[in-house]
Amino acid sequence: xxxxxxxQQSEHSECGLACVAMLLDYFTIRTRLTELREHYGVPTGxxxxxxxxxxxxxxxxNSRAVRADNxxxxxxxxPFIVFWNYKHFVIVEKMGSNTVNIIDPALGKLKISIxxxxxxxxxxxxxxxxxxxxxxxxxxxxxxxxxxxxxxxYKLLGVVLISLLIQFFNLLIPFIMKNILDGKxxxxxxxxxxxxxxxxxxxxLYFVTNMGKTRIITALQTSFDSDLLSLTIRYLLGLPYSYFxxxxxxxxxxxxxxxxxVRQILVxxxxxSVTDLLFFIIYLVALFxxxxxxxxxxxxxxxxxxxxxxxxxxxxxxxTQKQMVNLTKSQEITSELVNNxxxxxxxxxxxxxxxxxISNFNKQIAIEKSKAKYSSILLNIPQSLQVFYSLIIIFxxxxxxxxxxxxxxxxxxxxxxxxxFLAPMMSIIGVYSQLLIVKVYIERLLDIxxxxxxxxxxxxxxxxxxxxxxxxxxxxxxxxxxSENTLSDISLKISQYEKVAIVGPSGSGKSTLLQVMAxxxxxxxxxxxxxxxxxxxxxxxxxxxHLGIVLQDHNVFNGTIRDNITMGRHYEDQEIxxxxxxxxxxxxxxxxxxxxxxxISESGNNISGGQSQxxxxxxxxxxxxxxxxxxxxxxxxxxxxxxxIMKKIFNMPATVVVVAHRxxxxxNFDNIIVMDEGRIIEQGSHKQLLRTSQxxxxxxxxxxxxxxx
Length: 709
Known about the structure:
Layout: H1 15-27, H2 33-40, H3 49-58, E1 63-67, H4 70-73, E2 80-84, E3 88-95, E4 99-104, E5 108-113, H5 114-120, E6 121-128, H6 143-150, H7 153-181, H8 189-237, H9 249-290, H10 292-339, H11 341-346, H12 350-378, H13 380-402, H14 408-449, E7 470-477, E8 487-494, E9 499-503, H15 510-517, E10 525-530, E11 533-534, H16 540-544, E12 547-550, E13 559-560, H17 561-566, H18 573-582, H19 586-590, E14 599-600, H20 609-621, E15 627-631, H21 639-650, E16 655-659, E17 671-676, E18 679-684, H22 686-692, H23 694-708
Parallel strand pairs: 9-16, 9-17, 12-15, 15-16
Antiparallel strand pairs: 1-6, 2-3, 2-6, 3-4, 4-5, 7-8, 7-10, 10-11, 13-14, 17-18
Helix pairs in contact: 1-3, 6-8, 7-8, 7-9, 7-14, 8-9, 9-10, 9-14, 10-12, 10-13, 10-14, 13-14, 18-20, 22-23
């Protein structure tokens, strides 16, 4: 039976889609999870069996969901998907009498007992009804990773050539020893000086060659590291906003940090294995040329070493896959702990967070112990054989010498070549073991590199000027193909310099509408136009150069106040102080001992929430955007500061769209959009809506009473 190619889930709720991707890949053409995710999205809470069956059907594969007990499951031909622990999906790859092979999208391939399976199986299965001969397409290597090698091809070639030269020296020295010991290389006293000079030259040449190899490898490592890491960070920054919605910070940091491990394996070991493989064959020929019996014994020993090493590598790969899940979880817990320490202390949750961390840590320790247990047996046998190899060869060689079938020099030379034969073989086996592990790291890295960039979702048209007209025509948006639309049939026209407020109850789609307008989320249906230009035709970064966007999460960065406002852009201090006055920050910053050079800690922990929100507004306003898209921009401010800042915003020569939660300044807007359940139900001025919209009247009355209280 062909093996199923494992694809790990990356988002919190995509275990079902990952299972579907693996079976589509197994039964039909090569299918990647990233492709399905891009097309179908991930519904909040994940997929159900019906939705998974729909995905199969749309990809020309029929399936059937059934309720089945353990006995009935045995009649279904594997592989199939089962509901797991009432909250997860896994693939059953093989069912035996005592064990079950499953593929968990979160953990990898596992073999568990029937009792463990029965304990976790939740009674439902989804199986493929029409099995067919698979037409697998060719494997496509990620072009971005390939380019990292292409950019360093001359360094790679240099390392290979120098490695070949060093291996040549390793092969030459044993035969020089053999000729000296067997008396075939005889030098008179007068010739000793010349011989010493030749040996000295060989030593110096070997030393210089090895030194050159070290320096070229170092240059290759740093270059490859720089290319791969900079590629990953640049590509990560270019991914759509939606990519980050269902991924934790800790998980992304772990993926980025895996770059160094990928480089270490691919550069440090794989390149060396190329020359090892070539000389592995040359050494083998040399062994048989020297003595057939000892060569056969060496092959038997090496076969045992290879067999146990491969078994250990396979086991180690599965354990490492589990370990990576736990390490990622540990990174997530640590990241949450540091980022949310105030909330943890305020809710007195320190003990719960510690218990989560220690539980995950104990799982890591258990995996390390399992790896050590298997390695102590499976790796100890190859290592012991390698240590005793010389003794075995010398012992057997001794009998061959006394029976005049070999010379002492030949035995010594054979032993040296034999050790040189085992060294590249062990290196190749080591690389094989590491490649099994690095494959898991690369899969996680490719989750970043294989996703379509934000630029690819939009056009290429650059914008030099923007007047500020916005038009939405029948816009709908849902987070996935199977989710209910968050926005439905939104049509809206906003004129240049118009000041528009969007109001509605919580969950009505206000923030999503603003994010779709900014191109952070891409509408499923309908069109968005800026100055009669379709957003799909525009270079999205060029468009955002004319937009000022402030979302609910008013993030500040670990840096100076100046850095937080300029964000790498060039502004004179005079401009910065002016925008500080506009955002009511002037008095606060002017009283600080070093003013604009005052450092703000990560997440703005050393300033108030209101000051943090004012900084977010300042960094947006300073660029004098043509259009301002603001999501509750004054939610953390007092009424007086809110009124002053909103007055400054209203006086800006810009189109302003504000998602308004606090309605204290609502009367000043030219047009007010009232939303409910993802639709626009009313729009008009404040006075008009008080007469015509009961929902708006209720919202306004409620907020006014809250402000008065």
